[in-house]
Amino acid sequence: MGSAFPIVGVAVGLLLAVGPLFRAMATDAIQLVALTPPDARRPAEVSIAINPVNPEHVIAVLLQAGQPGQPRVSNHAYVSIDGGRTWQGSAAQNSDGRTQGDDAVTFGRDGTAFHSYISFDGIRVARPDRAWSGIFVRSTRDGVTWSTPVPVVDHINTAVPFEDKPWVGIDRSADSPHRGNVYVAWTRFDVYGSTDPAHRSHIMVARSRDAGRTFSTPLAISDETGDARDSDDTLEGVVPVVGPGGEVYIAWAGPKGIVIDTSSDGGWTFGTDRLVTTLAGGWDLPVPGLERHNGMPVAAVDLSNGARRGTVYLNFIDERNGDPDVFVLSSSDEGTTWSAPARVNDDAQGAAQMFTWMAVDPVDGAVNVVFHDRRGQSGTLTGATIARSVDGGRTFVNHRLPVPAFDCCKQSAFFGDYNGIDAVGGHVVAALPVLGDAGDQRVVAAVARFRPGTQELQ
Predict the structure, then answer these.
(1) Which of 68, 97, 164, 247 has an alpha carbon 20 to 30 Å from 207's alpha carbon atom?
(2) Taking a C-beta distance cutoff of 8 angstroms, is the pair 446, 435 a contact?
(3) What is the pLDDT of residue 28?
């Protein structure tokens, strides 16, 4: 494990002074601060979680390119104890020197955080010198000291099959008979990137009933397989979430669109896949200036004690209006029927929105969404937006983040597959990568405090 280091030069409402992009900024009382330090190399693909026991305690996990002599890409964790205004970080354990990524973090009901990620080497090579393909989970109470990573699955000396894009979910409901269960879902490629129609992709899940110390053997839950190309006809984009009664929801994208599967017995068995919506343009959505971009679904459940408790939400991007737009739809009957998709971005048509992520506040039930945004810009100039709904995802108010538009990108940039956002009691923290004038890539955090149940910024 790397040693923790302070993020110097960060204060309330002040960004690191490394260029015009990082001046003190605030819009409508939303503060923007630097999450990663100046020497972080190409940080991206960030997940963030707020401690429900202490909402001033926030953890973010992401990937960073290695310094000379270090692994090519490794995971890093950053922690804030002042609600996201200042941060300190450390590198994750990586004794094998593998490539790491696809970071996800979430808190359990008791304030324990769980971090899942992939750890691999040797893909896209016919005869690699070394090969691994694994998914690991580690936990922490403070975000500084972490448990020894536990393998959910780990293939030694081979990257076939390849385990990809995991996400970790926790049963946090006091009413659930399975409370405390840890679920990890992911995509399994028979052979990653293969064009051979015999090579397929599958949705897998494993559960832990002992706080992440051990995991069950992986279970394939997708009734139909996808191809292995890592594109529209591949099964990807799982985010396991749990309802008030312990029901487990896992949705993903594939050739038919977004489908969902559920479990009513704590993840031991799953039912029949159900189609939620088609995806206009598929989930693999090229956007100028980006190495890759997708519209894969994000799932969340309302665990508040409000009128919409138990409502399941899905957030995604597609091109049904002719350009990449952000959408949210919902189900109030455990995923059986779904509302029509509500368009989240409120601009005129013609501008791209990218890298959406969603969090449903467990206190007030508000639906909060973050995304990169090209509205009102020319070419590939890019900003960012937080959108918030307090009426069950039917309508959204868009709040522009104080990110000066940056050119994304003169050279193709890798932002990964997602941004991060979480919310507790109206306290909303989002994290996303941006570029400076010199093309330097950083991850910033946007901190907003709403009066619970309203659009009023405090």
Answers:
(1) 97
(2) no
(3) 56
Going by C-beta distance under 8 Å and a sequence separation of 6 or more, which residues neighbour residue 391?
none
Q: With beta carbons less than 8 A apart as the criterion, state whether 372 and 384 touch.
A: yes
On whether the CB atoms of residues 448 and 428 are closer than 8 A, the answer is yes
- Write the pLDDT tens digit of every residue in 285-325: 999 999 899 999 999 999 999 999 999 999 999 999 999 99
Fold classified for 5-449:
Neuraminidase (2.120.10)
Domain chopping of the chain, boundaries: 5-449
Residue 17 has pLDDT above 50, yes or no: no
From the number of C-beta atoms within 10 Å of its C-beta (0-12, 13-18, 19+), residue 127 rates as exposed
Q: Are 254 and 234 a contacting pair, CB within 8 Å?
A: yes
Task: Give the model confidence (pLDDT) of 336-368 as tens digits.
Answer: 999 999 999 999 999 999 999 999 999 999 999
In whole angstroms, what separates CA 151 from the centre of its chain? Answer: 20
Instruction: Reduce the secondary structure of 252-315 to three states and give it as a string.
Output: EEECCEEEEEEECCCCCCCCCCEEEECCCCCCECCCCCECCCECCCEEEECCCCCCCCCCEEEE
**0.90 exceeded by pTM:** yes
